[in-house]
Amino acid sequence: MPDCLSKKIDQLSTILAPYGARKLSTNELSKFNDKYVCAWELVTDLEFSNEPIVLQLRYKTLSQFDIPDVFISSPKIDVCQLPHLEKDGKLCVWPDSYIIDNNDMTYAVDLLNDAILMLRKGINGDLNEDFIDEFQNYWIYQCNKIDRLISLCDLTNKNTRLVFGYRTRKFGVIYSDTQKELINWLENQKILPLESDESNSKDKRIRQQQLSKIISIPLIFFNEAWYPSQYPKTARDFFELINQQQEDSESTIELILRSCANMLNVKPIILISFPTPSGMNIIGIQIPKGVSDLASDRFDTRGISRGRFRNIALLDGYRNYIDGKILKNRISQTKTENLIVDRSDDSWLTGREHNKTYKKISEHKVAIVGCGSVGSSVSRLLLQSGIRKMMLWDDDLMKSENSSRHLLGFDSVYKNKALALASRLREEFPNAYIEAFNEDWTEDSKNNQKIAEADIIVSCTAHWNTEQQLIKRQSKDILGAIVFAFVEAHAMAGHVIVNQVDSNAFNSWHITEGKYIGALKYPATYWKVNTRKRIAACAGEFQPYGAIPLTNLHALTARTVIDLIMDRFSNKSFAYSYIGREAELLELGGNWNYKWIAQFGNPGKGDCIIPLIFENSNWEKCDA
């Protein structure tokens, strides 16, 4: 044993000695499931079931950052008998974020005192509400941890209702409020073949077979969570909880019985939701006996010949119909299994119930025109921010050299950017509805009319002709705002311009006639030579820049879209410009452009965001 470790152990023994602590032997340490270098045991003045409570303070390393574990070594107390008690008698006293002064080892005394105080309150019943506040921590110990359930259900809807479920091999059972939402999720995860006119008869047949396996089950809302003593062990226990806590208990139980009577519902699952001070919760209870589970054996001659016939089947004495009361009595005798349900609803995914803007954001549909180095990453940021309806346009193919600054990687080479991006985003954000079109958006493109469905259009093409067609369509069909996003040479400046209907804001940023049509009126950077590089292809050229400077434009573009949705700029046209670092600009052979300086001022050392506003047909720096 190193001298420093031995010294610390002696120091702790001295500190704990006045409290009657005994240092455990090496032989005693070896009997623990986890490895500990040292531990102390002390008898407290507390009792549980008329036995004194003995605590152990265990150190795994006794290093600078090792906060010891506190265990109840005796008597044996099951999880859920006391709050903050974990497996094998471990106590949850201090949070992981707790900071201690390792130079003052008397913290060990503070830890023990806090543990004893917590136990005293727990034994007296003063901490019973913690069972509710931290419900999931206790429910998990009473659960079947093999089956996986995922809920897309909206828990802000506090009505008891039927929801739809589908069992998958990869994710377990998925539940949703609507069949449409469930089918979209399954399609996005490539579990269900897409419905398309181009689908062959086999795919269509497989799709119909899978759709027929969607079942409806009850989601029951309770006004309050359960204490561990209330956790149901049988269907009868569950029915009693419903009778005690539901206003219309008969209707709720009828929903359960109908679910159990569904021949496709082999082992019926019921979802339960309720509020806690920490937010909404959802759990599952499984009734291992359903009508189909036993009836299929009963009437299956092969099952009978193999000895699987069961004398006590739920349908005994009945063939096509069974009285609800009789079914309830028969089911009541069965033991239930408690299940963990993973939340995957929008409220949870976009802020764990603490993002008040998610609802408004999710209601808007965004069109991304151009899925290159800018559009691809912007689309993902918007989905992460809560956008749930999106359209993508691009006719370009992904190339290997694109992967250095594109969201897609080498596995998407030679695939259409819009289609490949949609495929990836659907898997990553299965709650989203994403349409993709293998075409440039133009007035003549096949799906050009779809753009009118968008509330906001984001143009990331940096293609003058496309941009002008979008502006023309915006005025003609009164489309939503158009957000234009583009970079200057070497991505040393990036601009996000919001063009409201008939505002002429975007074109006021550009030269619109003559030899330099399409060029910027107010470029932030100046270059003595053309920065575009040629490649060995017809009209082939590109603008050299990497992924890192682009991230500023990605964030600005996504933020601008959210600003529009949240009405933070009323109906005015506005812009954000990211100005890169002056040192890097000079290194690349550029300078700040005098046109920008004359209009908006000198960027100085750069590395800043400049807000701009379009007022009185002129772009001005916004001081707000």
From TrEMBL:
Gene Ontology molecular function: oxidoreductase activity, acting on the CH-OH group of donors, NAD or NADP as acceptor; tRNA threonylcarbamoyladenosine dehydratase; ubiquitin-like modifier activating enzyme activity
Domain THIF-type NAD/FAD binding fold: 356-470
GO biological process: cyclic threonylcarbamoyladenosine biosynthetic process
Annotated ranges, domain Prokaryotic E2 family B: 81-142
Source superkingdom: Bacteria
Protein name as catalogued: Uncharacterized protein
